[in-house]
Structures are given as C-alpha cells and as structure tokens.
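thoughts on these tokens:
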Amino acid sequence: MPDVWRVYRVKQCRHTHPPKDKFVVIVCIDSNYMGFLVNSEINQFTVRNPHLLQCQIPLSKKDNHFLFHDSYLDCARIYSFRDEELNIGLDILDTKIQERIKGIVTDAKTLEKRYINLILLQ
C-alpha cells in the first residue's frame, strides 16, 4: 500500500504528454492516491502566472537523493494514481517540505477544496 508523503517513480506516467517516467509525491488519498508531479524546470506558462508560480517548491538534489538534478514540485495540479502505478517507492519527503506543501495548498486557486482539506489532514 503506497504511503502519503512518499516519492514514487512512475514509469510512463499517463499524466504527461507524451508519457514518460516521472517522480510523484503522494499527498493524500481520495478514491485513488493523489499526488503532485516533480518537474526538472518551471515552464514559461507557469512563470507568467503568479498564482501558479507560487505553487512551485524547489527541491535540491543535495537534500533529495532520489533526484538527478535540482527540480520543482508542482503543487498547482493534483493527479490521481492507481496502486499499481506506485510500485517504485523512494524517499519520504522531509517534514519541512510537507509543511511547506500544506502552506502552499491552503491558498492554491487551482485545487479543489476537498483535496486541500485532505492534504491538510495528513
């Protein structure tokens, strides 16, 4: 059973186009596991939209040994994952990052209130 706050490597993630391997952080459980994607950079659309940009959390390779390079956790969009997609479990996120996620999602304009509430309960 996947853990909340654990990073998973999802092979051929169906939420990217085209599908590719992605790191995902599971942040709550609804009818499925719900998570945020880790990206290697912030795209220009996000940079031009302050309400999206404020939802990006820098993750350093130094502090997150699963990373290949410094990256960003995108807390603006939440995605559903099935149990079988989450079979490569890696590190649990540091509690400081967990608290930062909770602070960010509280004001996130792009997340449904029910997901915000589920994340805050973790």
